[in-house]
Amino acid sequence: MPIFIWVLAVIGFVGFVASIVWFFWAVRNQAKLEFPLIAHLIASIVVALLAIALSAGTLFWLYGTAPGQRELKSFASETSGGLSRVVKVYDLQGDLIDTYEGTFDIQEDSSKVFFDLPQEDGSTKRVQIYNATVIVEEQ
Q1: Same domain, 99 and 132
Q2: How many Cα neighbours within 13 Å face the side chain of 28?
Q3: Is the pLDDT of residue 61 over 70?
């Protein structure tokens, strides 16, 4: 999702730059214009305002709201191999079964939680947890 938001922000920025270029082009070439100069100027200003609103709105959502912050965190986790985490697994009686620490991405399904735990030799070990309480803390 953050990629889509960034694409919208870039489209807004490009639209803003294009509207500025359009504005100055219309002023410079007013003798050759098919429509009146005022129409070009108003249209370029409207496009600039829409572009600013698009860019500001998308960036505000991304950096100024809790869902946007969660999307940034998820994006960082998905693109960098995970976040530094501590996973604690408890049985149904509340007793600690195991603890996992490392940098990894966690996925969940309706019946399980799983992740690839990096090993010291550079390989990974797939950990799948069924029928347990799993608490994940970011470090």
Answers
A1: yes
A2: 6
A3: yes
